[in-house]
Amino acid sequence: MRSLRLGGRSQDAARRSLRSSVRAAGLALALALAVSPGVAFAQAEALLDEGKQLMKKGKLAEACPKIEESYRLSPRSATLLALATCHEKQGKIATAWVEYIDLGAAARKEGNKRLEADAKARGAKLELRLPRLTLNVPRAAAVEGLEVTLDGTPVDSAAWGQARPIDPGQHKVSASAPGRKRWEQTVAIKRGERKAVTVPALARDASAAPEPAPAAKAPAKEPAAPVAAAPDKGAAGAGKDAGGPGKGAGGAGKGAAATGPGKGAAGAGKGAEGPEEAAAGPEGAAASAEEAAAEEPAPTPGASPRHSGTFVIEAGAAGGALIGLIDAGSFGNLSSYSYSYNVPEGELIAPCNEDVCHAGFDPAIGPFAGGQAFVGLALSEELHLGIRALGGYRFGGGYLAVGGPSLSMRFGRLWLGLSGLAGAVGQNAKVTGVKGEIPSEMVDLNYGRTEVEVTAREGSLPETALVETFAFGGSVDVSLVLADLPSSSWTSGALLLTVSPTFMKGLDGFVLVAPASLGYRFY
């Protein structure tokens, strides 16, 4: 009994020891789990501080990886802001632009409106300077299994022909496909620059193993008939069916096992042609492949949606304000008026005409609606030279029809241009009176006056009249790219919102135009 009690006490002690061990292990695990995030956070903080110090010293190549590792260990908005700032200073503006977008989304979730607005402003500023690269794959080059990569990363076929933001610098574009020679090209791109790379049709690789041709299903073999059963019919069967395999099936005919004489020999002879033709199949396929490759159309070299040397056409609807400061002109019935001035013999009453009389007008301001167009040549991907035209109807009476040479240059998402304009402008304005011109030799007799008021019966002068003039001047054209839609088709181009403040000098006065237009530029 004593030994049993001792045994029971030993078991209880073992259980208590096991429970203590389990509790200790659980406590250690809980402590490790609690300490692990703290350790990661501490490491992230140390890396972030070190990265910021290196960034202040200008050692961006060392600073950015440390901040990036800090963000990986502990993803926080403050770290992402430092990372985007580092990449922006490093010149990787496309990478920084994406990070600012992510930062704005994170700040919105956190409810930090100030940080969200700051990230949005920084991203918008970078977006104007983003380089964009378009990878074009013509139909002739889009063979089965084609893989296009940019800096080693595959580009999905849905992104072919689309302008994509990219960091400034050198980038490698490559293309490969089964049974084709690999193609590579290095392209250098600057800030705000737009470039396109066209993937050519890949040449066939003669050293590559030929793709196995799909084997045709051989007809099911039938039991061979006994030789003695019907030799002539069996042999004829062999001849007939052997020709079938010779044409490409490669299998045996119904009577392939027949070895009878007579017609059977002739049939077998016919059937012998089958294997020869089948053996020649790979060579024939190779020849056909070479002919097909020779017939493949070569891609147009440099077929960029914005390639230099191409015609550029832009058309759009325009509207705005037309301010006419034309203070003198004529209207249709001036000849019905007369005026008088002193001459040596007394007083002379002279009839009015457009040469000696003119009407005075008040300034006229009114809206106008019309259109604008640009036709020119792309001297480069960012420089277009051509002719711009602007015209429209002025509500309340009048018109605008001007045009001239124009030069525009692209800076990121902005086009800036200058246009020299000349043409006709008309405005319906209030008539302030009519004056007649005094000949220069009679000025002294008329107290030094060069013109005199025309006497008109009350109510004979119109309240308003259309005054027209020839004007010349220029405009500053500022266009914002709302949508960039490059492609290899004729629709390649961009949707532009253009503002063109215009100043023009008329023969009598000035004309100010403030038009805005929404148009599409095809290039």
Question: How would you describe this protein?
Answer:
Strands 8, 9, 12, 13, 14, 15, 16, 17, 18, 19, 20 and 21 form a twelve-stranded antiparallel beta sheet that branches. Strands 3-2-5-6 form a four-stranded antiparallel beta sheet, with no helix packed on it. With 523 residues, it is α+β, with helices and mostly antiparallel strands. The radius of gyration is 44 Å and the shape is elongated. Strand 14 and strand 15 form a beta hairpin.
In short:
By secondary structure, the protein is an alpha+beta fold.
Number of strands: 21
First-last Cα distance: 106 Å
Summing up helix and strand content along with how strands pair, one would put the structural category as alpha+beta
| Quaternary organization | single chain
Q: Main β-sheet: number of strands, strand sense, barrel status?
A: 12 strands, antiparallel
Helix-strand sequence: HHHHHEEEEEEEHHHEEEEEEEEEEEEEE
The average pLDDT score comes to 76
User: Strand content of the residues, in percent?
Assistant: 35-45%
Gyration radius, in Å: 44 Å
Low-confidence stretches: 1-10, 29-35, 214-218, 220-308
Q: Tell me the number of helical segments per DSSP (H or I, 4 or more residues long).
A: 8
> Shape, please?
elongated
DSSP helix fraction: 25-40%
Q: What is the secondary structure topology, with strand pairs?
A:
Layout: H1 2-56, H2 60-73, H3 77-90, H4 93-110, H5 113-127, E1 132-136, E2 147-150, E3 153-154, E4 163-165, E5 169-176, E6 183-189, E7 194-198, H6 231-249, H7 263-279, H8 281-295, E8 311-325, E9 328-329, E10 338-343, E11 346-351, E12 357-361, E13 364-380, E14 383-394, E15 398-411, E16 414-437, E17 451-453, E18 464-485, E19 493-499, E20 502-506, E21 509-522
Parallel strand pairs: 1-7
Antiparallel strand pairs: 1-4, 2-3, 2-5, 5-6, 8-13, 8-21, 9-12, 10-11, 12-16, 13-14, 14-15, 15-16, 16-17, 16-18, 18-19, 18-20, 19-21, 20-21
